[in-house]
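User: Watch each token:
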Amino acid sequence: MATGYPGNYGSTVPVRAPRTLRRDSVTFITTFGTSHTAAGQVVFPRIHRPAPSLVPARDGLKPHPILLPEPDPMLSIKNLSKTYANGVAALTGVSLDIPTGMFGLLGPNGAGKSTLMRTIATLQDPDSGTIHLGDLDLLANKAEARRRLGYLPQEFGVYPKEPAITMLDHFARLKGIVNAKERREVVEALLRQVNLWDVRGQKLGGFSGGMRQRFGIAQALLGDPRLIIVDEPTAGLDPEERNRFLNLLSEIGEHVVVILSTHIVEDVTDLCPRMAIISRGQVLLTGEPREAMASLQGRVWRKTVPKAALARYQEDLVVLSTRLVAGVPVIHVLADARPEEGFEAIAPDLEDVYFGRLRAQAAASAA
């Protein structure tokens, strides 16, 4: 058997214990073996993406075919609605098309984000609507949907007295990885990928918030999912842990659909090439963050104002946001022209887009 497979730019990536999997009658090769660079950095092999079907002879090896996975699936949500028994309309006609990559779902607390995530994860049924991942109807085929899904909920519970490696091995069994050797390799590779291998014997109850979230991502990656959902993953993390976690999500999002549900605008700005804003169970905007910001170009104004005058500005103008800087209010205002002397035009950011949509929805409801 060949000792490597084609990597980027024609290089050969060494592998260990390759295995062949079958999904929907399409066979492809993957591995959970690891290699190391000269500097000792762990390199994790990735599933092959579209490439020539025959690799030329190289280093004395015979040409061999590369078996490719199915095309990257699109997550398609159509007219999804959910009203709870207490009369709260959590979702109203939600429709989204989400391609491979990072997708940000942005909205305030209580917007319906968690309801949408739980519905996609097949943990609850909608009143109406459909969800498809490629050709798979997630709501009609829940068992198969769960095999293709990785989910990190907002509240992720673990057994605090269990070591990380033991707990992840247990999750791997539940995911259907029954072969002990294969499961051991999978668990090791994932713990290395999320940078928890060195603390694999530590009890989960002693993990920091960021370490618990990274462990949650490891369990979500079990079974080679095609769709990963993370619900409010950075809430409560310190800046260093947040950056480490977001970098990990970004790497994962190169190959699968990753939905990042959050109320933190900066997370979406930093990570997501596509996004949607949801509030009161309705989609207010969907598209690319940079296009959304460009739509407000020349219409966002900033001014430092006295606290005593703040209420007047909020009554007379469309105030997007108010922030105290050294104890003094700084306001962002949406207007087609300079509202008055002292306002300066600024480049809009995603926070301006976000608050603009929320303000417009509130104004429409009040009318």
In short: Confidence is low (pLDDT under 50) at residues 1-69. The chain has three domains: 4-65, 75-291, 295-366.
